[in-house]
Amino acid sequence: xxxxxxxxPMREDLTKVGFEELLTAESVEAVIAKKGTTLIxxxxxxxxxxxxxxxxxxxxxxxxKKPAHLATVFAGVDREAVDKAxxxxxxxxPSSPSIALFKDGELVHMLERHHIEGRPAELISENLAxxxxxxx
Length: 136
Known about the structure:
Blueprint: H1 4-15, E1 20-21, H2 25-32, E2 37-43, H3 47-60, E3 69-74, H4 79-88, E4 98-103, E5 106-111, H5 113-116, H6 121-135
Parallel strand pairs: 1-3, 2-3
Antiparallel strand pairs: 2-4, 4-5
Helix pairs in contact: 2-4, 3-6
């Protein structure tokens, strides 16, 4: 587990643009149960989260269509919430960072670490915007 002080600025990269921090399994269940679309970012301390995933997710929100609900869990910190979020992401194996789009509780789009690592944030943003245009 990472110290709270270490991950605070990494959490704030998403919460300052409107992502809700999910810290418990119950909070994950509640956001997944909401009607409409929900984007969940599995945040991480790794470089590809800092350079690609968080900026890509943030940029994607400039799209005309976007998810109704934004949420994030932090791998290596909020184990209960991360485990519950990943359970909703099956059949995809656990990876962090990762980004999942749900519609009415159903997983409709997934970006795993191998879709994020080594790819520019702009490409991740475009991928997410395409998913928003289809599902939101």
